[in-house]
């Protein structure tokens, strides 16, 4: 059945000369260490329905650019795909190298294999960029995060401990679900854990002041060292500031990572929202907040290869939203550069130029 469906879809790609967009990601097995590349195609069918299909889960022998490019090209040829719009990858250096090599090879496959000669076919993954920045800032206070994680682990570990904690909370009944424990590899779950813990800061302080078993727990050894915690005043302050940053990225991640709705036309607006929020925090009276916001904004700008130089197809997708057209793009430019500034005019004229080029092609 799989072979029949594959052949039918391959014929459809070839006969319709269907242009697709691609997303790829590399997964490393925790048990064997082997690396695999998943290749997903996104396209619009004859009934104007957006389709998403995994067409390859390929073993790769290395993470080098040439290897990735070869595996990707072979997979597209295998499926009869001759036209590509964009390929979205994470920010690994090897991926940039891979797409340069892929660009050269794929242009030989057919005429008009890439739009506008592939000038904009390399798309950076918004969610991955957010993930990189957040992980950098969270790594700086990993001990503070560990202290609060241990706080919550203690309370959740036994019914008696939960009941003791509940007596110190003014807001009413507490369940294990009231204190979520994070998945360490998922920063968004860590944000939810920290933001929830902040609401119970007073109760945790009471635990330290009144509960002997709680203090004994933090005196125990864990992996040969004293267990991290309990969190002190400086830890809560650090987490409160961290959550101000994480909220910015968390809200945007919910939009750009949505898997059940279209979101390409929303990405540029979310990118600008993040940048604008960071720019506002740069002017904050708190020097620590201002310094951290400046550092994060520089990284954010760097990962996008400069906000002015980012892939124009993100802006084009915004314009193609019939409810927004050029208005949202102009509002975003004004937010970033100010109205009628040199930068505003440069980016706007660049966008108009790309739209005209797309129309001609």
UniProtKB/TrEMBL annotation:
Boundaries of every hAT-like transposase RNase-H fold domain copy: 261-361
InterPro entries, sorted: hAT-like_transposase_RNase-H, RNaseH-like_sf, ZnF_BED_domain_contain
Keyword terms, alphabetized: DNA-binding
Gene Ontology MF terms: DNA binding
Protein's name according to its UniProt entry: BnaC03g16310D protein
């Amino acid at each position: 059945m799989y072979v029949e469906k594959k052949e039918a879809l391959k014929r459809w790609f070839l006969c319709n000369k269907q242009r697709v967009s691609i997303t790829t990601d590399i997964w490393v097995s925790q048990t064997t260490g082997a690396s695999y590349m998943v290749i997903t195609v996104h396209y619009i069918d004859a009934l104007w329905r957006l389709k998403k299909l995994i067409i390859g889960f390929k073993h790769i022998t290395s993470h080098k650019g040439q290897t990735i490019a070869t595996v990707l090209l072979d997979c597209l040829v295998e499926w009869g795909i001759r036209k590509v719009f964009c390929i979205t990858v994470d920010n690994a250096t090897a991926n940039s190298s891979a797409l340069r090599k892929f660009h050269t090879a794929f242009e030989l496959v057919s005429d008009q294999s890439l739009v506008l000669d592939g000038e904009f076919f390399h798309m950076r993954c918004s969610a991955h960029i957010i993930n990189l920045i957040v992980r950098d800032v969270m790594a700086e206070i990993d001990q503070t995060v560990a202290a609060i994680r241990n706080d919550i682990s203690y309370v959740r570990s036994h019914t008696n401990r939960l009941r003791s904690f509940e007596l110190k909370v003014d807001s009413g009944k507490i369940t294990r679900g009231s204190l979520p424990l994070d998945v360490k590899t998922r920063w968004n779950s860590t944000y939810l854990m920290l933001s929830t813990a902040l609401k119970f800061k007073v109760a945790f302080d009471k635990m330290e002041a009144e509960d002997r078993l709680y203090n004994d727990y933090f005196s125990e050894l864990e992996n040969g060292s004293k267990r991290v915690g309990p969190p002190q005043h400086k830890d809560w302050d650090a987490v409160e500031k961290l959550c101000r940053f994480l909220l910015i990225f968390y809200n945007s991640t919910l939009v750009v990572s949505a898997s059940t709705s279209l979101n390409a036309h929303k990405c540029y607006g979310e990118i600008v929202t993040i940048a604008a929020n960071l720019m506002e925090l740069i002017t904050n009276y708190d020097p620590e907040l201002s310094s951290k916001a400046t550092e994060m904004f520089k990284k954010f700008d760097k990962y996008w290869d400069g906000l002015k130089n980012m892939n124009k197809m993100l802006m084009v997708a915004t314009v193609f939203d019939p409810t927004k057209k050029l208005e949202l793009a102009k509002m975003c430019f004004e937010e970033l550069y100010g109205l009628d500034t040199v930068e505003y005019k440069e980016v706007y004229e660049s966008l108009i130029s790309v739209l005209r080029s797309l129309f001609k092609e």
